[in-house]
Each structure stands twice: as C-alpha cells, then as structure tokens.
Amino acid sequence: MPRIAYTLDERELQFDAVRAQGAGGQNVNKVSNAVVLRFDIVASSLPDTLKARLLARSDQRIGSDGVVTLKAQEHRSLPRNRAAAVERLRALIDAAATIPRRRIATAPTRASREKRLDSKAKKGALKAARGRVHELQ
Fold first, then answer.
1. Residue 38: how many CA atoms within 13 Å on its side-chain side?
2. What does the H/E/C string look like for the chain?
3. CATH code that applies to domain 10-97
4. How many CB atoms are located within 10 Å of the residue 70 CB?
5. How far apart (Å, rounded) are the C-alpha atoms in residues 118 and 107?
6. What is d(CA 63, CA 69) in angstroms, rounded to the nearest whole number?
7. Burial of 38 (0-12, 13-18, 19+ CB in 10 A)
8. Can you tell me the distance from the alpha carbon of 98 to that of 91, in angstroms, rounded to the nearest whole number?
9. Measured between alpha carbons, how far is 131 from 119 in angstroms, rounded to an integer?
10. In terms of Cα–Cα distance, which of 50, 57, 71, 64 is closest to 4?
C-alpha cells in the first residue's frame, strides 16, 4: 500500500513526567515514572497531507486543538516509558500515513447469478409446497 513519507523530529515532542497510577507500594508516592507526551500536529514539520489525515481521524488521543496526548506508564523506568510513548505516536502517524488501496467493484459471474436464481426457484417451490393439501374428487 502506498505511504506518505515523513520524518518525526524529536525536538517537536514535549514530555512531562507524572506519577503513575496503580499499585507500587511506598515508592509510588515519591517517583514520577509515567510519561505524558504531547505533540502538536499543526505546528509540526510533517507533510501537509499527513497533517490533514491525522486531524481528520476520530481518535480520542487527538484533541480539538490538534495536540496528540499520550500517557505511557507500563514500565517502571522513565526512559522506557518515554520510548513506549514515542513508539505509540509513531504507530498513530504510520496508520494515518498508510493510504488504503481503493476497492474496485466487480460484477458477479454468470455462473454465480444462475446459481442464485436456481436456489431462489427451489426455495420458492419448497414454500409453495407447504400450503394446505387439497383432496382430489
């Protein structure tokens, strides 16, 4: 499938370290290991066609102002969560960069049309035979 070529500039990414949710004992209250990544689509250096495709997506991670917000907290270290957030952003952009192939409508074959009409005729005959039985005189 055709793709839109792009390069993601790391300087356009904004990272914030926040406290992760969930269990973690006493350490969870003093260490900020989760990462919130923000990426402004409109102000980025991405190609205009890719920006338009990203903004047109109905994704809850893309705000109405065109800023992508991702939170990564699956790892216990800040660098790994940061890498996971960047990887998810790349996956989101890759999905928008992939242009789906247009479907070409095809007509049914003659054999398939005849098969369909035969099955309709058989089904109709079966239903017609379900009626009340009349006695011959």
1. 10
2. CCECCCCCCHHHEEEEEECCCCCCHHHHHCCCCEEEEEEECCCCCCCHHHHHHHHHCCCCCECCCCEEEEEECCCCCHHHHHHHHHHHHHHHHHHHHECCCCCCCCCCCHHHHHHHHHHHHHHHHHHHCCCCCCCCC
3. 3.30.160.20
4. 18
5. 19
6. 8
7. middle
8. 11
9. 20
10. 50
The count of other CB atoms within 10 Å of the CB of residue 110 is 8
Q: What is the pTM of this model?
A: 0.70
Q: Which pLDDT does position 27 carry in this prediction?
A: 67
**Angstrom distance (rounded) from CA 78 to CA 90:** 18
**Is residue 54 classed exposed, middle or buried when 0-12, 13-18 and 19+ CB atoms within 10 A define those classes?**
buried
Cα–Cα distance for residue pair 49/53, rounded to 1 Å: 6
Query: What's the pLDDT tens digit per position in 31-79?
Result: 778 899 999 999 999 999 999 999 999 889 999 999 999 999 888 888 9
Tokens 């109405």 belong to residue = 64
Give the span between the Cα atoms of 33 and 79, in whole angstroms.
Answer: 8
| Domain positions in the chain | 10-97
